[in-house]
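In the current project phase, our protein records have gained a C-alpha cell line. A sample record follows, to show the layout:
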Amino acid sequence: MFRFFVKLMALIVVLALAGPFFIRGPDGQPLLSFGDVKLQLSAAGHDIATGWNRLTTRFGHADEPLPVYRWKDADGNWHYSDAANPAGESELIYIDPDKNVIPGIDIPNTQATSVRSVQAKPANGIQIKNLNPAQILNDARDAAKTMEERNAEIRERADEER
C-alpha cells in the first residue's frame, strides 16, 4: 500500500511539473515553453551572481578597525550596534578585524614512520604480557569486594549523620 502511495505521489508531481507545457492558454499557445524556462533560469542565475557580488563587496575583509557603539539599557543589558544609541549616551569602541584570527598550525609530516614502531605499540598504548583468565577473574572479584566495602562504609557514615 505504501509503495502504491509513493508511486501515485511521484506521478502527480511529474504531471504537475509537465502539465503547463501541454495545457493550452486562451491564446492557443502552451502556458509554459522551454524557452520561457531557459530565460527564467538565466535571469535567476544573473540575480544570484549579482547578489553574491554585493555580499562579497559589502562584507569583505576589513583592513581598518571597525567602529562599534555600545550602551547599557535601563535593565542593565549591553547593546552593540554600528549606529549610536538614539535614546541616549553610547560608548564608541573600535574592533580590530584581525583580533579573532587564529594562525594555522603547522603539522609535521608523519608518513615516514617505520613499520616496526607501529607493530611494537598497540592502539591504546597498553601492552598486555600475561593473559591468565583465572588471575583476571580473581582481580575482578577483589575489585568488586573492595567496592562493596566502600559502599558499606559510605552507608554507615550516612546513617551516622542522620
